[in-house]
Design brief:
Length: 431
């Protein structure tokens, strides 16, 4: 039987809440290139790479986090060696990881994004109290490329459990994956998702290597409630998912909800909700100081007492701690159930198990719905008759009763010069 840990297992209490700084954001020469195809035997295979690095796919830092029975979570190895990683050990090995055998976590760290793969293994070792815990991860400027490295990280965390301290494959990987040119200072802003030309989609899609089936899982988990999430992201609300591990599943939900906001219209080019992915107690000060809308997830119940940090908390499948002005937005309607039927029909166009393509169909469904919403309201704002009537709701594909509060808030948020009409009664005879 595994003994109880004496150190604070995966606890964040010992780390200060100040923002993690980035001391060495060594950068990204356009000439840097490498083909990463080497096999390093039982230490795992380096991931196959393209012919050239891009800013988005660069690996800025690489690390191994372990659990020490006396010290708690510790960064035991890292490259670059002088890269500031204060607090990262509690993101890479998230609260509650000790309750599962394997998991992964996406997180934001300063202006970077991280992916860390976790695993635990029983050992006959008194000092480790019968179990060994490791996480191996990377930091990159963009979350869209992180899953390119997942297979390698999963191989390496297994290797670190079996052969602790053997970092040769990690060092070789970093030599290939880390750009050497220094053209960006630590304080230089990274490319913004909102810096797009009108007419382009404001949300980049993950590489084909991301866990496929994310949207199918989301539909199965939330059912018609996914349309409440859709409304929240279009209204640029701060949404926090609270759930027990596996954390990777919650991170996938953050990604899917972010993608529900995909659109390519001029009318809503300002829309940009930040995906923060996993957050913990050390993010509280930053969240309190930020003015940006976000989507994030956590496994730390302390956030239930920090209601000023978010607009809506989603606890498992339920919307909790919802303010009065968002009650109608988070309530599932008959129209939502009809939309779910339409979404499932759209997904059903595929045959076989093409789960990645199914995710793309789901994104396409929401993108078309968003484009129609914003384009119709934009056209109405330039028409002689600027009333948003029953006919306009029908054109958009929304319900004039159950969706009225949502449409009114959209009009106010995005500044459409239209006259929202509220039906006097559900029969719509006066509308």
């Amino acid at each position: 039987t595994t003994e109880e840990f004496s150190a604070p297992l995966l606890s964040n209490a010992e780390v200060g809440g100040e923002e993690a700084s980035i001391n060495d954001l060594s950068s990204f020469g356009s000439a840097a290139s490498s083909s990463v195809t080497d096999n390093v035997g039982d230490r795992g295979s380096l991931p196959a790479g393209g012919s050239a690095f891009s800013f988005d796919t660069a690996v800025i830092a690489l690390f191994v986090v372990s659990f020490d029975t006396r010290l708690g979570n510790t960064v035991e190895w890292q490259l670059p060696t002088d890269f500031m990683m204060k607090g990262l050990e509690f993101k890479a090995m998230a609260s509650g990881f000790h309750t599962v055998d394997t998991d992964y976590v996406l997180f934001s760290y300063g202006k970077l994004y991280g992916l860390s793969c976790f695993e635990k293994m029983a050992v006959d070792n008194v000092e480790e109290r019968g179990v060994r815990l490791r996480s191996v991860g990377v930091l990159s400027p963009s979350y869209t490329s992180l899953f390119l490295h997942q297979k390698f990280l999963q191989e390496q965390v297994k290797h670190q459990l079996k052969v602790p301290g053997d970092y040769r494959a990690l060092e070789e990987f970093f030599t290939h994956a880390h750009p050497g040119a220094s053209s960006l200072s630590p304080q230089s802003p990274l490319p913004s998702l909102s810096a797009v030309t009108p007419g382009q989609s404001v949300v980049p899609r993950l590489m084909p290597t991301h866990p496929s089936g994310c949207f199918a899982d989301l539909c199965s988990f939330f059912g018609a409630k996914i349309f409440a999430l859709w409304r929240l992201v279009l209204l640029q609300k701060r949404v926090l998912f609270l759930s027990s591990p596996p954390v990777g599943a919650a991170c996938n939900r953050v990604y899917c909800v972010k993608m529900m906001g995909t659109q390519n219209t001029r009318a809503a080019s300002q829309a940009d909700v930040q995906p923060l992915f996993y957050v913990n107690i050390n993010d509280i000060d930053n969240l309190a100081a930020s003015i940006h809308p976000y989507i994030a997830c956590t496994s730390e119940v302390i956030f239930k007492t920090k209601q000023s940090l978010y607009d809506v908390m989603v606890e498992e499948r339920d919307f909790s701690l919802v303010p009065q002005d968002l009650q109608a937005i988070t309530t599932t309607s008959h129209s939502d159930r009809e939309r779910l039927t339409q979404l499932n029909s759209h997904r059903g166009r595929l045959t076989g198990e093409e789960t990645t393509a199914e995710d793309d169909l789901c994104i396409e469904f929401f993108e078309k719905m968003n484009n129609k919403l914003f384009n119709v309201l934009s056209a109405r704002s330039q028409a002689q008759d600027r009333r948003v009537t029953h006919a306009v709701y029908n054109e958009i594909g929304l319900d004039p009763v159950s969706d009225a509060s949502f449409v009114t808030k959209i009009i106010e948020l995005y500044g459409f010069d239209v006259d929202p009409q509220t039906p006097a009664c559900p029969c719509l005879s006066c509308f």
